[in-house]
Amino acid sequence: MKSLFLALLSAVLLTTAAPAMAGTVQEVLQDQRALIEKSSRRTVGPAIDALVMSDLPQMQAVLEAWQAKEMWQRKEDGWFFAASKNADGTYVLHRFEDGTKVGDYAKGALKQLKPNSGVRAMIATALVQYQLSDPDINKRTGALDSIARDPEAALLAPLRASIPGETDPGVLSRKTRLERLMSMAYDTDIAVRVTAINDMSGDLGVDFRATLNPILTTKTTILAVGQTTDATTDANVARVLLPGSETLSTQAAYALLVAADLAPAELTQDARDAALEANIEAGRVGGFPVAQLGTQAKRDAAYDALVAADLAAPRITAEDIAASLASYQFREIYQEPSQAVTDVAAAALAKSEGRVAVNQAVDLGLDALSLASIYFLAAIGLAITFGVMGVINMAHGEFIMMGAYTGYVVQMFIANHTLSILVAVPLAFAVTFAAGVALERLVIRWLAHRPLETLLATFGVSIALQQLAKNIFGTQARPLTAPAWLDGTWVINDVVAISSIRIAIFILALLFLGLFLFIMKRTRLGLETRAVTQTPRMAASMGINPDRVNMLTFGLGSGIAGIAGVAIGLFAKVTSEMGGDYIVQSFMTVVVGGVGNIWGTLAGAMMIGGFQKGVEWLNPSNTLAAQTYMIVFIIIFIQFRPRGIIALKGRAAGD
Amino acid sequence: MNRSFIARNPSVLIFLSILALFTLLVTLLSEGFGAGLVSTSMVKTLGKTLCLCLIAVAMDLIWGYTGILSLGHFAFFGLGGYMIGMWLMFERTRQIVVTSLSEGVLPPTPEDIQAAIGNQIFGVVGSSEFPLIWMFADSLVLQLAFVVLVPGALAFVFGWLAFRSRVTGVYLSILTQAMTLGLSLYLFQNASGLRGNNGLSGLQNLPGVTAPQSVVSLWFFWASALALALGYLLVAWVVSGKFGSVIRGIRDNEARVRFLGYSVESYKLAVFTLTACISGIAGALYYPQAGIINPAEVAPIASIYLAVWVAIGGRGRLYGAVIGTALVSLVSSWFTGGQAPDVNLGFYTIKWVDWWLVLLGLSFVLVTLYAPRGIGGLFDLVARKNPGEGP
Amino acid sequence: MSTLLEVSGVTVSFDGFRAINNLSFQIGAAELRAVIGPNGAGKTTFMDIVTGKTRPDEGHILWGEKSISLIGMSEAKIAQAGIGRKFQKPTVFEDQTVQENLLMALRKDRSPLAVLLFRPSVPDLDRVAELAAEIGLTEMLLRVSGELSHGQKQWLEIGMLLAQEPRLLLVDEPAAGMTLAEREKTTAILTEAAKTRAVVVVEHDMEFVRRLNCKVTVLHEGAVLAEGSLDHVTKNKDVSVVYLGR
Q1: Which of A261, A492, A484, A465 has the alpha carbon at shortest distance from A363?
Q2: How far apart are CA B243 and CA A38, in angstroms?
Q3: Residues contacting residue C32 through CB under 8 Å, at least 6 positions apart
Q4: Distance between C3 CA and the closest CA of chain A, angstroms
Q5: Is residue A160 a contact partner of residue A151, using CB atoms and an 8 Å limit?
Q6: ipTM, 2 decimals?
Q7: From B253, which residue of chain C is nearest by alpha-carbon distance?
């Protein structure tokens, strides 16, 4: 009521630019003195309205001072001043009219006005209209934020009035959008509201949907059959609900009647049991021994006996419920009275939701792509050591971990995050390259062509490395902070957004793919690696040193795992167990993709990432389940393509 | 079990005698029945170790004899534990609930009891509904059957899919690891119906049994010893005859066995399923002694440790698997239990709780590199026995 | 003479390379046949196809009196149907005894349950002893087969093939790495076996083929180049081009 009144007043005021009614600020204040002194949320409205309506330019300062509890009253005459405390404990008063100093007063001669929080909120609302046109752009955006957070019909008119004078294009577009949204909800003219809704129909903004939703809120009401004079008969009916249908079960409908005191409540088990307990006589209830009442059927029978003896109220039967329901009609009523508005709002919301769904699919696609790049990153080192060389390295995940910890250690010494990442990447490569070379020379070389033994020995290495990391860095997760320029998010619209770090990982994955192809197809090492893995003896006889090539290739694969570790550490926690989170997935990626083919690894990462995101989308609360389903899916997938998506064919692949 | 079988496999008789002696000795020294030199918690540790030895025997059958490095047998072990745990937890909660509900004026209805048990068990995961998989939790007989059937069925389905598509070697190992990971992640969810990461607890209390833990622990110890003896006998018998020849043939040259007309897939599937069933039984005996089971028990790393034990003990000979498992798991619990003395190097103190796993990992690498036959290989050297001649 | 195995119009290619090209081949129920051909002629792939290891892209393989198609059957099923194969490299189960090797090969029910419950009966052991005598390994019966010499392993493998009682024996280079005396013995075993069953010997060594004294099929680039007696095919111009022309 109050806000409507205020809106009306301000509308009149601002559109007609009426001349000032009262003379000075002090006169206006004194007119409202009683209300201001004893301000409460319920009574202060007219006083604030009067201040605003006076149209005095100083009123903004008055309201701000009042809100900030800096308005004091001089006890001797009851005049209001802005006051500030002096160093000696006295207060200096300033006139509101021109800011001139009145003089210093002792605290005892003054009285501070202390509006409570409800009053302060009302002052804030009144202030918004000043702030909307404030020269300070921060105040203007602040006012817009406050309106958007808590829109109110009263604010529509000041908002509209402030639009023509707006100079900043950014603020102007926000104001215009907010004005459109508020027009939908609060404009008095139905036609204006319908136009506003239609104009924005299909908009993706969260604010748009948030504005439409309250317009479309419904309430289920009960109408006696044959009743026509009820206030709700000409309400804006969303739909009529039939008890017993999918939208309104019989029980729910009856519960509504009970809640509205239109029907007696059904007998609950608790009520029945209470009645039974109340009627125990000499160990028997209704003729049944208490000890026998251990089943629902017996208890029901005992209760029926009580009813027959008139000791308890009869139960409500299904027929009673049907009869009650038959005499009432259930309808969903829009809170919004205008059907024209609800119709277009429903249509606009449906359109928006349709577009939102499309955009969500795009967003999901981006998510899947980014997950796929993470898997690809984690797996690409394996694609070299396992895919090309055929060496099973179960400590691969620990190499990822070593890379991530290297990044963490570098950050302890280099504070600048950008610089530290630039240092960490080559250092992580160097560390894990060295670790890979050591592992190859000390263990893997001696187990050549015994894959199961290699698997076991590298498991041992993995266990030892994990525990070693735990001993050095402790069990708690260590942060690896991304530089600020990777912190942002690329927002495409209200639905589709992707964080910069994921874009960076995607780009890194592409770079690695390029690097891999370059090394394998264009460099001497790649040629020698392929020669050594395919026909080691022939390669050896042509002057290639297979031991050296194996060592370098293994080191390369491990080094890439280290770099992947830095990248993964940037968005996931760095722990000693992080390697284990990626090892199974990485192997799956390589196996599903097809061993020995980098494009297969890429396809495998895409498929696994896409599938996992798809399952998460179907069941958003449960990412654990998504991984379970993914593994089941992989096991079934291997049934159909045992050699992976991109399979090598031929006799060589047969054994 | 005819006479010639034992006669042909003297090691089986030796093993069974040692096991019987050990069981008798522990019983006589226990708190429950004897001198009290072996504490109840030690009896439990030993009983659990016997269960681990049983699953190690199964692991040896599938890996040492058939050549399939399964990294999933602890999943079957855990499933067996869960199956018996469901009954233990349900029945015990039921007794508590019935007692407390009987204090009411009216005798409790079955619905009241069921709802109260549901509340008790599933309160921790914010639910009180009984999931479908608890349908038979009130029946000891059915849950005991599930101890064998559920791991067996999972192994059968997984094995059928995997072997049919001729996944072999390391690929199969990784696939079994993925299966284990999938299962443990599944169990971690609250929606799994098995209390998510809380797992099942209070399993050491046998419903309706008032005997003290010192006695109950011995019952389980005997049961574990008996299960190990029977499991050992069964597996020794399986590998002794022509079946043993065929599976060792599969291990050494799968294609050759196929061209001899044996359906390799059926044999692998049979062994995989049988060992899963044995693992389930081992788990069902293990977890009541441990008192609690949670999804972390099923995590892939557990199955890897199993492979480590068997490898250290020496695969392809059953006593090797048992020795390796008993040794490593007992030493492991000694080191990680904080009983091992710290080593002060002056500048650094080696705490075994922290460093034991590093040591284990490295010794595992060394065993794989330099002693692929494990501890059992030493026995060969001493006994001048031919490897692979039998258990 | 009735046809035991009929291969017609079979083609297999690996990544575009035609290893077997429209190959047709027949053999009777009791016949010895040598298959020769240069490296890469498709001899091993031919055996892979017949034994079910490789699935042909086109063509028919018909088996036995009932002309059952072997395409799509598993290796084990084909072996059970009566086709035995000996590999180029001797593949016996080296950590098992000669007796265990032979028992495994003995023609018996091969289902897992039957094998699990199987305990060798006296006739079984007699049959194993008889086979061992045939391949000259009686002394070695209880020795681990890894201890055998190269030639003995070859014989053991042939013995295992015979134990299977196949109707068709596919033998890949049985004489490779054998001494002269061993070759003679191998020849004797094979010709003896061919009296009651079909035997296909794939061989490089012309001298050994001559010793076998049987019909010869020459393979080249995945197809049959010539067929007939050894003298007949060696006179064939194409054959001499293939063997000597390069």
Answers
A1: A492
A2: 99
A3: C190, C191, C194, C198, C199, C201, C212, C214, C215
A4: 30
A5: no
A6: 0.86
A7: C93
B171 touches A591 (CB < 8 A): yes
Scanning A201-311, the segments in alpha helix (DSSP H) are 206-215, 250-259, 269-278, 296-308
What are the helix (H) ranges across A17-136?
25-31, 33-37, 45-53, 59-67, 117-131
**Nearest-angstrom CA–CA distance, C164 and A635:** 36
CA distance B113 to chain A (A): 10
Structure tokens at B29: 């020294």
Chains that touch A (3 or more CB pairs under 8 A): B, C
Yes or no, beta carbons of B357 and A464 under 8 Å apart: yes
Q: Is C15 on the interface with A (CB under 8 A)?
A: yes
Pairing assessment for the beta strands A218-224 and A328-334 based on DSSP bridges:
antiparallel
Instruction: Give the H or E element holding residue B31.
Output: none
Predicted TM-score (pTM) of this structure = 0.82
> d(Cα A124, Cα B223) in Å, to the nearest integer?
78
Coil vs helix vs strand at A131: helix
What pLDDT digit, counting tens, does each position of B304-356 carry?
Answer: 889 989 988 888 888 999 999 999 889 888 888 777 777 777 777 778 888 88
CA distance linking residue B303 with residue B59, whole number of Å = 10
Q: How far is A467 from chain C (nearest CA, A)?
A: 39
The token duo for B337 is 């239990």
Question: Which backbone phi and psi does A316 adopt, to 5 degrees?
Answer: -80, 125
Cβ of A654: how many Cβ atoms within 10 Å? 13
- Angle CA A195–A199–A201, to nearest 5: 115
Which domains occur in chain C, in start order?
Answer: 31-50+82-244 (3.40.50.300)
Domain boundaries, chain B: 3-296
Strands of the sheet containing A328-334, edge to edge, are: A218-224, A328-334, A237-241
> What's the CATH number for A357-654?
1.10.3470
Report domain extents, chain A: 2-131, 218-339, 357-654
- Which chains neighbour B (Cβ–Cβ under 8 Å, 3 or more pairs)? A, C
pLDDT block averages, 10 residues each, chain A of length 655 = 50 43 72 76 78 76 79 81 80 79 79 80 79 82 82 80 84 86 84 86 82 84 70 71 83 86 82 84 82 84 86 82 84 83 87 88 88 88 82 90 93 88 92 95 87 87 92 87 81 80 87 87 83 77 83 91 90 85 84 82 90 82 77 82 67 36
- Is residue B322 within 8 A of residue B391, CB to CB? The reply is no
Query: In 3D, which of A481, A503, A483 has the Cα closest to residue A569?
Result: A481
3-state class of A288 per DSSP?
A: strand
Asked whether B102 and B114 are in contact (CB, 8 A), the reply is: no
- Chain centre to alpha carbon of residue C156: 14
Query: Do the Cβ atoms of A628 and B185 come within 8 Å?
Result: yes
Contact B223, B40 (CB under 8 A): no
C-alpha distances in Å from residue A182, one per residue of A144, A157, A161, A186? 12, 10, 13, 6
Mark yes or no for CB contact B270/C112 under 8 Å.
Answer: yes
Range with the largest mean pLDDT of A180-194, B18-32, B270-284, C84-98: B270-284
Q: Least CA distance to B258: which residue of chain C?
A: C76
Half-sphere exposure of A408 (CA within 13 A, CB side): 22
* Helices (H), ranges, A524-577: 524-534, 536-541, 546-571
- Please indicate if any CB of chain C lies within 8 Å of the CB of B242: yes
B296 touches chain A (CB under 8 A): no
Percent above pLDDT 90 for chain B: 42
